[in-house]
Amino acid sequence: MTDMYQKISIYAFLITVIGIGISYIIRPERECLKHPVRTLVHAFTLIFLDQKLSFAGAIRKLVYLLALFSFVVLGITGFYPTLVKGEHISGYLIMIHATFAPILAICLAALAVMWAGKCVFNTKDWPWLQRIIERLTLVKIDNNSSDIESSVWQKISFWLIVFLALPLIMSIILSMLPYFGTHWQEILIFIHRYTALVFAIVVLIHTHLIVIAQLRK
Q: N or C: fewer beta carbons within 10 Å in the chain?
């Protein structure tokens, strides 16, 4: 199962990275490729050094950066043994992994609360659905009642992260309890590993969307 998981993980990450790279070429962001260093510096200043934030916005960004750092640590410690060595996580890596896992869980819970309002779906996110409803009900929907703070894809990826976090966290916690036999522990580890893979890909896509949004400002 490790060999299959290794192959699936490698292909999944390659497809994700290639897809993100292609998006910079075929979309208006392709201009960023002409000046990659300047673009990286600009993105860095917008994401990490933005001075136009309120106190609540600064707290939200600090929590986000802590979650992102924890995600990087967990990604390296969790996927390095699988992708590079084809082995299960063990030794010091599992100790580091277990240390940062609760930090990420707490940050995700905080971000779910702080960003929930910003990522609420509205009629502007689904114009095709709005047109269908208007034709069926003969009622004009007012679009001026809410402003879009995040793109629909940012919202979708955000809620996917929130929902995937639950089986990701609970599967590993339940596997540690003595109430489950070997068979169920293997199933829980299986769920944790594949959920972690999907979770990591969605986080990469969400981060990419945030960077693009910052660069467009």
A: C
**Rg value, the chain, Cα:** 20
Residue 89 sits at φ, ψ, to 5 deg, of -65, 140
Question: What's the pLDDT tens digit per position in 135-161?
Answer: 555 555 555 444 445 578 888 899 999
CA dist 126 → 34, 145, 193, 201, 206 (Å): 34, 15, 33, 24, 19
The model carries a pTM of: 0.79
Are the beta carbons of 124 and 132 closer than 8 angstroms?
no
How many whole angstroms separate alpha carbon 65 and alpha carbon 109? 14
For the purposes of burial, counting CB atoms within 10 Å of the CB of 71, is it exposed (0-12), middle (13-18) or buried (19 or more)? buried
Cβ atoms of 86 and 6 within 8 Å: the answer is yes
- 77-111 burial code (b ≥16 CB/10 A, e <16): bbbebbeeeeeebeeebeebbeebbebbbebbebb
What domains, with CATH codes, occur in the chain?
Answer: 2-116+150-215 (1.20.950)
User: What are the pLDDT digits (tens) for 40-57?
Assistant: 555 555 555 455 666 667
In whole angstroms, give the CA distance from residue 2 to residue 160. 25
> In terms of residues, how long is the chain?
217
* Contact present, 161 and 207 (Cβ < 8 Å): no
